[in-house]
Amino acid sequence: MSIGEEQRESFIQAPPLSENALLAIIAAGFVMLHVLTAVSLLPPSATTTAAPSLEQMLAHYD
Question: What's the whole-model pTM score?
Answer without folding.
Answer: 0.50
